[in-house]
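Before the break, one more example. Copy the sequence into your notebook; we will annotate it together after we see the structure.
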Amino acid sequence: MNISHRKNYYYSICHNDKKHPDQSLNPELLPYLSDVSDMKIGIIGLGWLGLPLAKSLLSKGCQVTGTTRSRSVNLAHERFLHVTFDPRQKHFADSSCFNDSNVLVLAFAPAGTNEKVYAKDCIRTTDLIAPSCKVILLSSSGVYPKRDGIFKEEDYPAGFIKNNAAGYAELALSSVLRERLTVIRLAGLVGPNRYPVTAMSKSGKSYQSQERVNLIHQEDAIGLIEFVIEHKLWNQTINGCSTKHPLRGPFYTEMARKLGIEAPPFEHKNRLERIISNKHSLDLGYKYLYPDPAAYPIA
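Here is what the structure looks like once it is written out:
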């Protein structure tokens, strides 16, 4: 699919909640629609990423059920089933709603400071699904060491990292689900109402200008999740990250300019060449909408 067409298609279904007018006629769209139609997808965590993912899957013909931890989140206008679910609660009145799910996406972030609690929360969600249901854990590239290097999935397979909450969750789920699990390690997320430089400019801290950034746009995070589902890529660990890694100082200074805010101060002392490789996702066939973070749209 032409990238500009795919961007317009994605925007129309996720932001305007309307199908692209040519969706049923354009043969280039078929690879993105045929495999997931009528699938039943569960999403634990209808947050900044989970909610637009639900909308996108719904537009492709999926039956979607999603959860939030609190009833304070108003989703009454959405066209999919949504229930309240907190993994730490012992009883879940609507537990049967995931019994016939084909895929369960764990899109909720760790809550609290105890690194192992998140792993337990993730394991509790597996009690809701059938033995045949596949699971996608949205993990983080933060599992990789904070040092120079090019970090690939094959060097740090799921289940072998125990240095933070995401690592413990990967370990716990891989031991239980085995070949039914795919882990997507997302780099720093960027997109509507989520621009790291906003918090950076308010922090009062200075940052290292010469470090590389590892980022992924919301549209590509959703695209990669859907690609895994469509192509049945199970028992995988996949990094989700834009191909290019600009220097932090110039990149965030330019982002601040586009947002009309003051850029944070930068120092030019240490240079960290920490690169999250997306080669495996490219080899699998995923084509990034935004391989260069410099091209991210600023809403």
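Residues 123 and 173 are 6 Å apart (CA to CA). The longest helix spans residues 165-177. Try to locate both features in your own notes.
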